[in-house]
Amino acid sequence: KQWYQRRVRGYNDASYYFWKLSMAYLKLANQAQTRGVEEEVNGCLDKFQDYQSRAEVYYVYQTLHRYTEEPFTSHLPEALFNMARFLLPHTLQETPYGVSKVSLLYALAKQSKSMGAYKLARHAFDKLQQLVIPPRFQESIDSHSITIRSKPFQDKE
């Protein structure tokens, strides 16, 4: 329990500190612009965008992490679905430190299946089969992978 609380707090903390870093670089860009140093402005704005993106990733991921670790959630299935959809492109090139692709794809697959997006759920479960799955997810993923095969190949509108 204590390890889990530190982990969730860690995602919140990471999000907050990346946001603080992004704001610091935005101020530096503003100061560089008043001095007229264009290269420094571009560098600071690039850092601002990078840190802002990381802050968003960790902020959203902490909710999905809690969803996969805890038995109940107060979030609507549509919200969890959209959070997972938001995070997916951020993990294609490089997965941020501490972010589990398995948890992300598992949440996306489960929510897709419950919302009738069977094509996306099937794709997510296929991607999950290519990853190293922790034992606590293995049975659930295997059973969902089998049951999704019985669903139609076309999604609901």
How would you describe the overall organization of this protein?
- Helix 2 (38-69) packs across helix 3.
- The protein is 75% helix and 0% strand.
- The termini are far apart.
- With 157 residues, it is mainly α.
- The protein has helices at residues 2-35, 38-69, 77-87, 101-115, 118-129, 135-148.
- It has 6 helices and no strands.
SSE layout:
Elements: H1 2-35, H2 38-69, H3 77-87, H4 101-115, H5 118-129, H6 135-148
Helix pairs in contact: 1-2, 2-3, 2-4, 3-4, 4-5, 5-6
Major sheet: size, sense and barrel closure? none
Question: What is the radius of gyration computed over CA atoms, rounded to a whole number of angstroms?
Answer: 19 Å
- Average of per-residue pLDDT values: 86
Counting copies of identical and different chains, the oligomeric state is single chain
The number of distinct β-strands equals: 0
Distance between the termini: 41 Å
Strand proportion: under 5%
**Which stretches are low in confidence, meaning pLDDT under 50 for 5 or more residues running?**
1-5
Helical/strand content category: mainly alpha
How does the overall form come out from the CA principal axes? elongated
SSE topology string: HHHHHH
Helix content: over 70%
In DSSP terms (H or I, runs of 4 or more residues), the helix count works out at 6
